[in-house]
Amino acid sequence: MARPLSLCFLLHVVFFWVLLRAALSSARPHTQEEPLYLKFVSNATDFPMEDYYDYIIIGGGTAGCPLAATLSQSYRVLVLERGGIGYGNPNLMSQEGFIRTLMEVDTFHSPAQAFTSEEGVPSARGRVLGGSSAINAGFYSRADTYFFHNSGVEWDLRAVNTSYAWIEKAVVFRPKLRSWQSIVRDGLLEAGVNPSNGFTFDHMVGTKIGGSTFDKFGRRHTSADLLSYAKPSNIRVGVHASVERVLLASTSANPGQKISAIGVVYRDQVGRYHHAMVRDHGEVILSAGAIGSPQLLLLSGVGPRPYLSYWGIPVARHLPYVGQFLYDNPRNGISIVPPMPLEHSLIQVVGITESGAYIEAASNVIPFASPARAVFLHTPSSLLNVTVATLMGKIAGPLSRGSLRLASTDVRINPIVRFNYFSNPADLERCISGTRTIGEVLRSHSLDYFKFRDWYGNREFRYVGPPLPADLSNNAQMAEHCRQTVTTIWHYHGGCVVGKVVDKEFRVLGVNALRIVDGSTLNISPGTNPQATLMMLGRYVGLKMRKERSGPK
Ligand SMILES: Cc1cc2nc3c(=O)[nH]c(=O)nc-3n(C[C@H](O)[C@H](O)[C@H](O)COP(=O)(O)OP(=O)(O)OC[C@H]3O[C@@H](n4cnc5c(N)ncnc54)[C@H](O)[C@@H]3O)c2cc1C
After folding, report:
1. How far apart are CA 420 and CA 93, in angstroms?
2. CB atoms within 10 A of CB 540
3. How far apart are CA 48 and CA 42, in angstroms?
4. Are 414 and 338 spatial neighbours (Cβ–Cβ below 8 Å)?
5. Which of 24, 226, 309, 461 has its CA 20 to 30 A from that of 8?
6. What is the position in ligand 1's atom list of the atom closest to the CA of 83?
7. For residue 353, what are the contacts with CB-CB under 8 A and spacing of at least 6?
8. Exposed / middle / buried, residue 159 (Cβ in 10 Å: 0-12, 13-18, 19+)
9. Which helix (H) or strand (E) holds 211?
10. What is the pLDDT of residue 29?
11. Pocket lining: 81 vs ligand 1, CB cutoff 6 Å
12. Cα atoms in the 13 Å half-sphere on the side-chain side of 438
């Protein structure tokens, strides 16, 4: 008799359990699901003191994450990222947090690491999973054909296109144009930056709306999201893991023989050292970016012999161009205070001119922090915000080149960089031409709304910082304006360029089992903005490496 009773009881329990779950789930607010990759990301303090992998990727940045995801489909992969997890950090997740991220910096921990070039131009680099794609302005645009013909790599353009498409499916969106962006688009067309190319990822002369890594809810996506394509059982991602050195060894007694990368040494958050070693046929891949990769090569003993000796670093391989051919695309432009408040907008539109100047725009609500505020306001802590609308020009290339050198043997300290902006006269000509286009946009009817009326009824822009020279045709004044107002658009690249430090397959010259896959290998900036091509590069090289290894020996 006991059996039917307990069955009935069980059915009741199940019934109520189902009801309860349904009620609970309908009452729960809709929350965003955590990205899949978080399941295999851990603090490196939890990692063993020594472990073995097929591929060790230094830097979980823009190129490093897609590379890791791709290699993990067939091999055991370790990613070591010196920063933490950016997902969920409110400043990093939204366009509104862009400026705050760049302002709230400290020496060792902030997601943006500030540095200043020897010319005095302040800049920043990503120090977080996702790298600089986690702190950038989110604009996405594919490279131009000039890049594919002149970057020193024999590109397989079919694989390039499928790699771009792989990225775009996951992390790129069509932006909803914010007001300043659509005004600038109209102004560019009036200024003759034609035709209107609508919305496209492709690089086309004229004015276009590009892609964005901010989705329709305004949430940022980064290259870290591409880790969700990885095979979880084959990949480990360690955060707060600062790689100090690539371990290099000679595999034969013959001194003429190539050395090989055999592993890396990294330090975790509590200062403990770990070794990660590569298995047979494995490789170490530097994806530490244009500042981090040359720095780490030098610290590992790969670079110009006299220079390494000066620092007391044992020379593993004399490679004279490590840290040389470093470039930064100068940014010039104007900023105005508009007569009406504007919403935040990072880059969504670009004008691509025939002369190789690219015009972009942003509007930011920034805190007004003059000390004079305290004189009139009783509550100086209350926040006053002011909108600043910016029009900026970036030049293609550039041709002017600089260099990087160590400031310390501590990998956490930024190296010293110098970009020698406009040392090549062709860059100055491009800047003059781009600045003229900005002048034309300012004269367009579309921008009339942004002028203030003075006592006499004249309408003028209210500039923050220097205005353009009154006579746009005066080359000397325009050149002076370019030199005086130069700043960065953060597209610095080079330092380990193809043909000088790495070969066409991105292998470090004269070293086995060591590649570099990131912006340090570029000798020109790809198209208007580099992140599309750097994410593509990670996927592209990963596919090639898999094919190479599985192909006939
Ligand atoms: C503020 C800002 C705005 C930008 N806006 C745009 C934009 O709108 N559109 C666009 O296309 N591009 C933009 N860029 C440029 C673009 O984001 C970068 O060119 C690109 O992300 C660089 O990719 P990368 O893979 O070379 O390096 P990164 O993405 O910087 O990756 C390098 C990674 O290596 C890690 N690392 C370095 N050293 C070590 C070490 N020793 N141990 C472990 N890890 C290490 C770093 O923490 C970092 O995560 C912007 C950049 C910045 C900084």
Report:
1. 34
2. 27
3. 12
4. no
5. 24
6. 47
7. 193, 205, 359, 433, 434, 437
8. middle
9. strand 211-212
10. 39
11. yes
12. 31
Strand pairing of 139-140 and 242-250?
Answer: unpaired
Mark residue 107 as left, alpha or beta (left: phi above 0; alpha: psi -120 to 50; beta: remaining). alpha
Query: 326 forms bridges with which residues in the sheet?
Result: 402, 494
3-state secondary structure of 530: coil
Distance from residue 535's CA to the centre of ligand 1 (Å): 11
State the DSSP string of 178-209: PHHHHHHHHHHHHTT---EEEE-SS--SEEEE
Q: Is 529 in the pocket of ligand 1 (CB under 6 A)?
A: yes
* Cα of 33 from ligand 1 centre, angstroms: 25
Taking alpha carbons only, the member of 226, 263, 240, 251 closest to residue 55 is 263
What is d(CA 536, CA 66) in angstroms, rounded to the nearest whole number? 8
Q: Which two tokens stand for residue 29?
A: 């607010």
Nearest to 336 by CA among 466, 453, 433: 466
Whose CA is closest to 196, among 374, 351, 301? 351
Q: Quick one: average pLDDT of 238-246?
A: 98
Helix H or strand E encompassing 80? strand 77-81
pLDDT band at 454 (very low <50, low <70, confident <90, very high): confident
Q: Which two tokens stand for residue 452?
A: 């203030």
Candidates 293, 356, 398; CA nearest to 144 is 356
Residue 380 has pLDDT above 90, yes or no: no
Q: What is the 3-state secondary structure (H, E, C) of 335-385?
A: EECCCCCCCCECCCEEEECCCCEEEEEEEEEEECCCCCHHHHCCCCCCCCE
| pTM, full prediction | 0.93
Beta-strand relationship, 77-81 and 235-239: parallel
* Tokens 């592993």 belong to residue: 263
Tokens of residue 539, six digits:
């996927």
